Amino acid sequence: MKIADHNPYKKWKLCVIYMCCLSVLAGIFCAIRENSFPRYRKDYDMVLMNDIGKTVILKDSKMLRKAISANEENVFINRKEMEYILNEYGIEETDFWILFGGYEKLPGFGGRGNLISTIIFKMM
């Protein structure tokens, strides 16, 4: 009398289980890849800070890009455009720091790029 007898698996059942496992793994991989954050994201917004700690975030726009542009060595500020932006955001100060460039590794976290001190004299 045999209590347990050797019963081999059927090959088609093994193939079905194998294909199901592969498709589940592929689906998980695709879902993670589709919903993951990119390695980094360039940050085009600019931040103005003054001596007393008031901070204003200037959202990226064509006008802002016209007002402040930079290359590897220089930062260029178009005075008329910058005055218009300062008036639009209700900024009265003329002495402030501009923080621009950089990247975000995760939303809200990451490195910042360049910081310059600026004095904008308004025309009278």
What is the secondary structure topology, with strand pairs?
Elements: H1 11-35, E1 41-42, E2 46-49, E3 55-58, H2 62-67, E4 68-70, E5 75-77, H3 79-88, E6 95-104, E7 112-119
Antiparallel strand pairs: 1-6, 2-3, 2-6, 4-5, 6-7
Q: Care to describe what's here?
A:
This protein is of the alpha+beta class and 124 residues long. The chain folds into 2 domains: 9-38; 41-119, no CATH class. 33% of the residues lie in helices and 27% in strands. The protein is built from 3 helices and 7 strands. Strands 1, 2, 3, 6 and 7 form a 5-stranded antiparallel beta sheet that branches. The protein has a two-stranded antiparallel ribbon with strand order 4-5. It starts with 10 loop residues before the first helix and ends in a 5-residue tail after the last strand. The relative contact order is 0.15. The model has no long low-confidence stretch (mean pLDDT 82).
In summary, what is this structure?
With 124 residues, the protein is an alpha+beta fold.
- Our count of helices gives 3
Strand portion: 25-35%
- N- and C-termini, Cα separation: 110 Å
Q: What's the gyration radius in Å?
A: 29 Å
What is the overall pLDDT average?
82
Number of structurally distinct domains = 2
What is the percent of helical residues? Answer: 25-40%
Structural class: alpha+beta
The count of strands amounts to: 7
Contiguous low-pLDDT stretches (5 residues minimum) are none
Overall 3D form: rod-shaped
Helix-strand string = HEEEHEEHEE
Profile the largest sheet.
5 strands, antiparallel
